[in-house]
Structure formats: structure tokens, C-alpha cells
Amino acid sequence: MPKGVVLRSGKETYIKYNEKRDVLFVFGAGASIAEGVPLQRDILKLIYESKDEQINKSEAALQVRTFINENFDISEGVYPTLESIFGYLDYFISKREGLGCEYTTSRITEIKEYLIRLIHYIISIPSGEKYGAYRKFWNLVSEKNRNISVVTMNYDTFIEESFDFLYPDRAYIDYCIELMNYHHYDEINAFDWWINPREPIYVWEGGDPKPIKIIKIHGSLNWKYCNCCNQVLLTAWDTKIDLVSMRFKGYIYASCDNPDTVEYDLTCPLDGNRFDTFIVPPSHIKELSHPAINKLFDEAAIEIRKARKIVFIGYSFPEADVHIKALFRKNMRKNTEVHVVNPSLNDTIRSNYKSLVAAPFFYEKNFENFIEDDLTSLIVPSDKSNLLDTANCEDI
User: Which of 16, 63, 219, 287 is the most exposed place for a label (fewest CB within 10 A)?
Assistant: First the structure.
């Protein structure tokens, strides 16, 4: 053994959740602006006006632009909302009707998939800091109180990418769905192996990890769904999609044995099937019947009921998210504190939250300023809550 190298011992342990959650954080699109993620209202403009060659040369962009031009008025340079476009497409798909001889039901379904993949491509383009606001958030969580959970409406992966320094001694991510990555180690890329925090894990000496739920209730760019084996593969650091082949890209990263990173078309390691996107598009007619989506809603309901405080960051309860409002209305306890962080508060947003609770606390500031000014005071647990909660580790 080289001089100065110390090997840590450890033991296999269950890491448990506390009975109650001190804070549930709910993230909307406004939380990811600082990381460079475009707002939903800007995505269609990017599809039309982007100088990105892959967008402009893709069949997906051509088909989507043509459909919108023929069915919506953009003559004044004002684009329709994504909700209205998806709602229009979903109407015909749900009725199994065509729109004239040119737009059969199957073609309308294809255009919808093109639009979803364009959205995936645009959001996945790296444009912000990996260690921005979310990294500051996790630093404070690690330092002050890890008895928190997260529900996010966002598809982007900044919240997970900025979590990496917490592993393995401080925290593990619990995505709250069954992942192919927990099994099938012989079939999947070693870079995609993942630890299930609900099973016994190996805790190193000196480590004190906690499980933290990150519930991506509308799906994620790094989740790939196989409609053959009905399983989800987490590609934690791979979110890229090729708009020419319409395939997801996987990577074998550089190592001692392979000095160069290798890019390849990602297919299901169990059956070779092409993966589908796993994101719920913004639509007034949302398809929420997928078993994994149902599981995420069940987990979110549990966290809402357990939470002493709920902090909404950059979320405004848009009209297309009536299912989210219903989720909170059904499950919030009467004594739960509600805090709302939004730099663009208006009467509509305030009214949306007052329909949940009589006296929410409002912070008219952005995510970063909230972290600096207010986060610590909100997440530090009271002595009473510490006494009520049980220990979270149990040897096996």
C-alpha cells in the first residue's frame, strides 16, 4: 500500500427517512433561469429563430414549423403558447381524428413527437453554470438540514448535476421510481450504474448519508423509456438527442483503457429497442396514466402530507397545471407553512397561492437572492421537530 493511503472501512446499512419532512421545495421554470434554461414561452421562438444548424436542418423543425404556420397566426411575430399547440395536437390524437387529408392522426402524432424532441434538444443545450444557484442550494442543505425533499416541474438536470459532491458521505438521490440502473449490471454501461437508496447501501466510516427525494413529476431529460420492456433507464450525465437521426446519444467516457470519449446511438440494453423521451409536454390535455408518472404523483402526495413547510420557487401554477394545483389542494395539511419565491409576483400569482392557504409568505426575489438572504432561516429545524423525528440509520 502506498505511504499515506488510508483505506476506510464501512458497513451495509439501511438509510431511513425521518417521519416528517422539515421542508418540501417545489421548483418551477423560474428556478432554472439562472442556469441558462429557457422559459417555456421562449422555446417556440428558439425553434423558429435559432441559428443552431441541427435545428434548422432537421426534419423535425421543418414539420413543426409547417404545421404551426398552417394552423396558427404568427404574422405579427407573436408565437402561440406551447400549451395551445400541444392542446390542439392532443385534441385530434385523443379523438383519433385527422385534420384534412394531409394531417392524418398518425402524422399529427408524429408532429407531436417532433415537437417534444425539439424541446428536449433545446433544453439540453449547455448554457449555464454547473455550479450556480442549485450548487449554492445544496451546499446550504448539506450544512444546515438534509431532512428536505424536492418536487420539480423542470425537465433539465441542473438540480442533479449540482448534487454530485454530496455522494457518498452526505446524501443519495431517490428518484422515487424503479430504474433499470438498479439491476442488469451486465447489460448496461458501467457509467449508468446507480445505487438504490431504498435498499441497504454500503456506508463508509465517517460517512452519514441521508436519502433525499427528487421527484421530477413531469419527467426528465436524463430518463429514457423503453416501450418494449416498459423500463426507465437513467442516463445521469447524458441528455443529448440527435435531431437528424432522432436518436438519443450515449457516451463511453475517457478512461485509462479508452483515452477518447466514444459517442454512440443509445438503445435499450435489454431488447435493443429505441428509447422514447420521458417528459410530459405542457398541454391542457395531459396524459398522466403512465405507471411511472402515477408513482411520482403518489410520492409527491406523501411528501406534501409530511411537509411542515412548503417552499415554491419560480413556479406560478399555470393554467395547464390544474393537476398540480389539485395535488396540493388534496394533500396539504391545514397547518403547513407556504412560502413563495418569485421575482415577478403579480395579483394572479398571489391569488393562486391564497387559494391554497390563507396567508402564504411571499418573497419578491430570484432564486439566488433567496438562497443568500432567506434559505438558512427556513431550513434550520426547530428543536421540537428534532425531538419528534426518529433516527434514520439501521444496521442489517
Answer: 287
What pLDDT, in 10s, does the model give residues 139-154? 999 999 999 999 999 9
CB-neighbour burial class of residue 118 (10 A; exposed 0-12, middle 13-18, buried 19+): buried
Q: Residue ranges of the domains in the chain?
A: 10-37+129-238+277-395, 40-124
d(CA 371, CA 258): 41
Give the C-alpha separation, 124 to 26, whole Å: 21
- Torsions phi, psi for 394 (to 5 deg): -150, 125
Phi and psi angles of residue 93, each rounded to the nearest 5 degrees, phi first: -65, -45
Q: For 74-102, give the DSSP string.
A: -TTSPPPPHHHHHHHHHHHHHHT--BTTT
3-state class (DSSP) for residue 278: strand
Pairing between strand 393-395 and 201-204?
unpaired
With beta carbons less than 8 A apart as the criterion, state whether 338 and 356 touch. Answer: yes
Residues 6+ apart with CB under 8 A from 391: 16
Question: Tens digits of per-residue pLDDT, 184-242?
Answer: 778 887 778 899 999 999 999 999 999 999 999 999 999 999 999 999 999 988 888 99
The β-bridge relationship of strands 241-242 and 247-252 is antiparallel
Distance, CA of 180 to CA of 178 (rounded, Å): 7
Q: Give the CATH number of domain 10-37+129-238+277-395; options: 1.20.120.10, 3.40.50.2300, 3.40.50.1220, 2.60.40.10.
A: 3.40.50.1220
Cα dist from 8 to 4, 203, 377, whole Å: 13, 10, 35
Alpha carbon 385 to its chain centroid, in Å, reads 29
